[in-house]
Q: What sequence folds into this?
């Protein structure tokens, strides 16, 4: 959360740069001076883009295709995701077929990384393989290792775990014999993490723990707290497999404070392991809470994870044992759906890897450490299975989609009839009981007056709202404010703020046509939420439908009235 002073500082800094680094001044610099200036100002996106554009212009005037490729790669690093992919494609196009040691390899590798971070795993794998092939042709060991890590990382999720482990260990050996390469630390961390995660998926926790310890030791050595906590989280998964439940819980919960820095599928993995720990201990209600949480996360962001089928299998079994056929069928549908989606993804990844990716000949020739990945031809039987899987997924997805749309439509109609006055779809945490005698009536009345003014002025729309700051603004203390909200609003302060924001969103979307044209992210920010995900979850919890569906139905109702 940025202070006003910090925002002003950035504005002044931007203006300063705009004055100091004029187009004519930048054009007068050499290529290397421009790159150095870019690297020094890469966090200032506007300036960095201006520098990269100047570099490209100079290269174009000199008809230097390699330098143009270099300029577009720099432009990609400071561009939004979709633009970055286009710039990287341009980087590849300008340098393809050339003899530069770094291009077009860099274009392929960064494109693979961007696609991986956005869950486009199949495309990411294709680009990583192309990057690896380019690096191998140019005998660039550092780039080969980077490409191998990206290929192995995708295979660790969706491929053959044993083959991936073999490849990851051999990549580690290659790295150990080339310790002087650039980004050695990053490659070392990627190696030990990849090997450890493969051992987890192969149910060999002791071996996994040995490699996770290597990662922890190295992260502590360089004081890298994010990487340290990532390995602590991985350690929790291995400890669970050993049956060391309390130690596993401690590790997972300790690392969870860094969740914003982990991969997008981390919340599902975290909730799966917590649910499994409690399930194995016979604490079914607590386990059910975490499995359902994993389900709700998937519903919200649709990010696949190999742990998802295990989550839905647990939920299906739970409702089967409790003779709840409706819920059993619901989670069985989800189990079949995600299982089919994951199977289709695994078929592609395995086929792509086996067809186009082999262990580096560099090691075969010099160290005799790598034996190669076997090439296997997937003939007609593979095509038939893929077709059947796709067909089954399509049918199940359609059934599930129409069932869900029917439920959402009914909820929308109820909302319109009751003007949004519905009970939340999930259980609300118990609010502590507050006796009137705990606070003087005059104080209660005064705080209620402030709350009324706060609601009227829509103070809750600010993202900076907090219990302490609001109490200070009211001229009271946080304890009194919290207790009055508990007593009078029958909810805690956080839920009180969220309900006000969601109520505002509901009403504003209903009456304001312009507001409906905003993106979900923009609507979330306007209503005081920090992310589209937290807004969508809160809206669904309150009304049983997602804001996107609500907007869609409002637009349909509006269209009917106009016709």
A:
């Amino acid at each position: 959360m940025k202070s006003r002073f910090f925002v002003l500082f950035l504005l002044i800094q931007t203006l300063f740069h705009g004055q100091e680094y004029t187009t004519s001044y930048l054009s007068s610099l050499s290529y290397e001076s421009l790159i150095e200036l870019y690297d020094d100002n890469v966090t200032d996106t506007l300036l960095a883009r201006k520098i990269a554009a100047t570099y490209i212009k100079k290269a174009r005037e000199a008809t230097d295709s390699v330098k143009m490729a270099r300029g577009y790669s720099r432009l990609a690093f400071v561009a939004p995701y979709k633009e970055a992919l286009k710039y990287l494609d341009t980087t590849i196009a300008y340098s393809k077929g050339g003899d530069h040691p770094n291009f077009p390899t860099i274009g392929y590798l960064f494109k693979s990384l961007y696609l991986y971070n956005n869950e486009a795993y199949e495309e990411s794998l294709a680009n990583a393989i192309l990057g690896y092939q380019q690096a191998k042709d140019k005998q660039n060991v550092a780039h080969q290792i980077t490409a191998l890590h990206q290929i192995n990382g995708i295979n660790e999720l969706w491929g053959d775990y044993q083959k991936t482990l073999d490849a990851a260990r051999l990549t580690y050996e290659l790295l150990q014999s080339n310790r002087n390469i650039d980004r050695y630390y990053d490659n070392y961390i990627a190696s030990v993490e990849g090997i450890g995660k493969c051992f987890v998926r192969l149910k060999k926790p002791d071996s996994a723990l040995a490699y996770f310890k290597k990662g922890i030791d190295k992260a502590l050595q360089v004081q890298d707290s994010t990487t340290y906590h990532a390995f602590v989280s991985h350690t929790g998964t291995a400890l669970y497999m050993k049956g060391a439940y309390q130690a596993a819980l401690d590790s997972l919960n300790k690392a969870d404070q860094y969740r914003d820095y982990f991969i997008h599928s981390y919340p599902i993995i975290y909730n799966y392991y917590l649910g499994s720990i409690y399930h194995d201990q016979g604490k079914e209600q607590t386990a059910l809470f975490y499995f359902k949480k994993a389900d709700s996360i998937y519903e919200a962001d649709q990010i696949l994870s190999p742990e998802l089928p295990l989550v839905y299998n647990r939920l299906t079994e739970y409702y089967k044992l409790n003779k709840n056929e409706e819920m059993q069928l619901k989670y069985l549908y989800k189990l079949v759906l995600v299982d089919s989606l994951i199977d289709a993804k695994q078929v592609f990844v395995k086929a792509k890897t086996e067809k186009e990716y082999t262990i580096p000949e560099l090691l075969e020739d010099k160290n005799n450490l790598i034996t190669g990945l076997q090439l296997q031809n997937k003939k007609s039987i593979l095509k038939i299975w893929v077709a059947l899987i796709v067909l089954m997924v399509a049918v199940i997805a359609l059934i599930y989609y129409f069932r869900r749309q029917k439920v959402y439509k009914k909820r929308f109609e109820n909302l319109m009839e009751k003007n949004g006055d519905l009970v939340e779809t999930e259980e609300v945490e118990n609010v502590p009981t507050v006796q009137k005698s705990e606070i003087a009536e005059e104080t209660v009345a005064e705080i209620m007056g402030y709350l009324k003014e706060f609601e009227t002025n829509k103070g809750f729309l600010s993202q900076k709202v907090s219990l302490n700051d609001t109490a200070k603004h009211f001229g009271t203390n946080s304890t009194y404010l919290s207790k009055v909200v508990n007593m009078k609003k029958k909810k805690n302060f956080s839920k009180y703020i969220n309900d006000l924001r969601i109520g505002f969103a509901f009403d504003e979307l209903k009456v304001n046509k312009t507001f409906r044209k905003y993106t979900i992210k923009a609507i979330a920010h306007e209503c005081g939420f920090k992310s589209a995900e937290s807004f969508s979850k809160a809206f669904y919890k309150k009304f049983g439908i997602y804001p996107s569906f609500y907007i869609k139905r409002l637009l349909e109702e509006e269209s009917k009235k106009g016709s």
